[in-house]
Design goal:
10 helices, six-stranded parallel beta sheet, single chain, alpha/beta, nine-stranded mixed beta sheet
């Protein structure tokens, strides 16, 4: 099932084209997340041109093609590479991300990829190397960075408003687990709740501080109440990890699937500093509603409250950057920090 155009490859397209044209995007993976991103970007018909659609599921592909009849369609990402595109949005199973992203980058396409960028540190480094070599923009969907108030929290922390960070506690418990079969496959998922939920916590804990040097201290992974090691066997549904930063601050992380928490989700990050504190937490068990506060003694300041559809803000930020330039942004290099720590936890 494929509609192919005989056009020049992306490498022949001038880098300046995006300054005066809608970017032509391909969407790889049209499950719940991929379709949500497609629909979000096309709600404003002037933002992009949907040029290619890829999914191994024929029904999902037909449904998306019915809405975007001018797009080429294919069950395989390799056929997308011959299309006249500027960039690709990837939302496929974790284990496919690295090779798909590298193939697109090597063809000269900018890439926005669902987290995790890859399931291993070596593959993260391979993707980054491909992005640098191609000089193409690479974005990763760390959507929680864009919750209202989170960027203001980062600014306050970076300015030293709460003093030196002493400790961070981050929690992400789901009363449910993933319902897709690939999420239970070590080859396709690459990990359990740590790679699903813990990557968000670790990214936030480091990002709000400007990505300080950090090392793993100890960690434990469990599956159905029994300790597990690595990711070759049963994938973890409960993970604990502790990290120490270069300044001596401790970061504690805990995440789980199928948690007995009396509500759908428990999501929070608490930061203790020498002159103040801060918190980010979900409201009434929601997966989507959050409050961000800064504390000084008994005083509290609300930095932001999210009761809206913030989930596509990272994608929209990448698209805005793409309109300006599709060249590599060194900010993507920071993914190596958290990827290396996640790798250590699985190796321990």
């Amino acid at each position: 099932m494929s509609a192919r155009l005989q056009v020049p490859t992306q490498s022949a397209i001038p880098a300046s084209r995006l300054a005066h044209a809608r970017p032509r995007l391909g969407f790889v993976g049209l499950g719940w997340i991929g379709r949500k991103r497609l629909d979000a970007l096309t709600a404003d018909s002037s933002a992009i041109e949907v040029a290619a659609l890829v999914d191994s599921d024929a029904d999902r592909l037909r449904a998306a093609a019915a809405v975007h009849p001018d797009a080429s369609v294919s069950p395989d990402v390799d056929e997308l590479l011959d299309e006249d595109l500027d960039a690709v949005v990837i939302a496929t199973p974790n284990g496919l991300h690295a090779n798909q992203a590298i193939a697109c980058l090597e063809r000269g396409l900018a890439v926005f990829c669902q987290k995790p960028l890859a399931t291993t540190l070596s593959d993260v480094q391979r993707v980054l190397a491909a992005a640098r070599a191609a000089d193409r923009l690479l974005g990763i969907d760390f959507c929680y960075r864009y919750i209202t108030g989170m960027r203001e929290l980062r600014r306050r922390l970076m300015s030293g408003e709460i003093g030196e960070v002493i400790a961070i506690s981050a929690v992400f418990h789901n009363a449910y687990g993933p319902d897709k079969s690939w999420c239970k496959s070590p080859a396709l998922a690459g990990g359990g709740c740590l790679l699903d939920l813990g990557v968000h916590l670790l990214d936030l804990a480091l990002w709000v501080q400007g990505m300080p040097p950090t090392e793993r201290v100890r960690s434990r992974l469990f599956a159905h109440g029994q300790p597990v090691q690595g990711r070759a066997g049963e994938l973890e549904d409960l993970a604990y990890a502790e990290f120490i930063q270069a300044n001596g601050a401790i970061v504690r992380l805990c995440c789980s699937w199928y948690a007995h928490i009396g509500q759908p989700a428990q999501i929070r990050m608490e930061i203790a500093g020498t002159r103040g504190g801060a918190s980010w937490r979900n409201v009434d068990g929601s997966f989507y509603d959050f409050d961000v506060h800064l504390f000084h003694g008994t005083e509290r300041e609300q930095l932001g409250t999210s009761r809206d559809d913030w989930g596509t803000r990272a994608l929209r930020a990448w698209l805005r950057q793409l309109h300006v330039s599709k060249r590599f942004d060194a900010e993507a290099e920071n993914i190596v920090r958290s990827a290396a720590l996640i790798e250590e936890v699985y190796r321990a």
